[in-house]
Amino acid sequence: MEVKEGKTFGIISVDSLLGEKITINQKDYKKVNIPNYQRPYKWRGKNVLDLLGDINSSINKNLNHSNFEQKIKYRVGTVILHDNEDYYDIVDGQQRMITLALIKFYIEDGNICDKDCSNIFKQNFNNKITQQNIYKNYKVIEDWFSAYDSNEKRERKEKFKEAFKNILEVVILTVKKQSEAFQLFDSQNTRGKALEPHDLLKAYHLREMKDKPYEMKEAVKEWENREPTEIKELFALYLYPILKWERWQKCNYGFTVNNIDTYKGIREDSSYTYAKRALRASPYFQINQPYIAGNDFFEMVKHYCNLKNNVKNEIENNKKFAYIKEIFKAENSVGGEYVENLFYCAVMSYYDKFHNFEELAIKKLFMWAMTLRVNLLHLGYDSINKYAIGEYNEKYTNHIDMFSKIYHARLHNEISNMQVRLPSEEDILKKKKWHELYKKLKNL
What we know:
Blueprint: E1 2-4, E2 7-13, H1 14-17, E3 22-23, E4 29-33, H2 45-61, E5 74-83, E6 87-92, H3 94-107, H4 128-145, H5 150-166, E7 168-175, H6 178-189, H7 197-207, H8 213-224, H9 228-246, H10 273-281, H11 295-317, H12 322-330, H13 334-354, H14 359-375, H15 381-388, H16 402-408, H17 413-416, H18 425-429, H19 435-443
Parallel strand pairs: 4-6, 5-7
Antiparallel strand pairs: 1-2, 2-7, 3-4, 5-6
């Protein structure tokens, strides 16, 4: 334990956290309480399944370690407590604690609510949302264990009990003043600004590498050496849109916290067939293919940062493609930026699949992207979305689901042989704004 400036830090087992009383130093034993000001319990089934999966994974990694000292510890989060003399009030960590309590209640067959059980189990939850989610999540836990037959279920319960005692840990932080508790809560959850989605992915994959300290160190070094905007834009402007468009799906502009599950990868110990294939394929990457969670995520980010830079350097510096740079430079508008990004996404998708810059293929991709620009006077991201997946619109000259075509192509010349049309001169005469641009495209 460590005490600094009225704050007490410590690490305890989940079993200790869910005991009748917990100790943050060797003197004080207090019950944990959920104060009235706390928000309702809002964890959903997905959150519960993620936690069960994490616990199960930590158990599987410890199967070969019968000796307590050799066990690989797994931290399930941080709990911030306010020491209000009578109780330790939970300021942050309530959602996870209630879920852990539900799991413990299940694995103990409900035989824990005697005088020695945690105050969490004795709490009166009056909020309707909390009551509903407790009921639903307990059913999720029951269903998860029901995937095992009776003998395996009994064994798995025993392993969970052992994990709660000797594997799963919680970081405990207590403060004396309630104002300090809320300040810490705000710092822990927002730091004045929500964490970027790619930073959350970084934390997730580092956790998957906790038993590989050297690789963790190198991954962090490589990550920190890059400009934060480079990684943010890689996901928001390239990887995520390409992945969605290859699947005939639209995407919002940007990359949000709601999208991060797409990039959590596959656990190394997964028994899924596609996981074994991904493991064998490592360290080679494809935008639309899965990879192993942990170090492969950082290798993937490095690979696609370099690939994106290689694509841009080739287009901007190869004399064969000088016309592309010239036309984009003249197109100084928001719609022009959207089309430029659409083009580079198409080239990245093509290069990711075929690893070449075949001149006619690049020209076709450019013509396809720029045709949308002359089709519309006003171009927003919604039009980019529809155009990328080949959705029909009478204003569009081409209705090619380009990203899906690239994804399904067997040979690169299937793209260079593709027919891309320009609008008729009659259509363009109605749009004086695009006369010069149309002439340049026609000359190509």
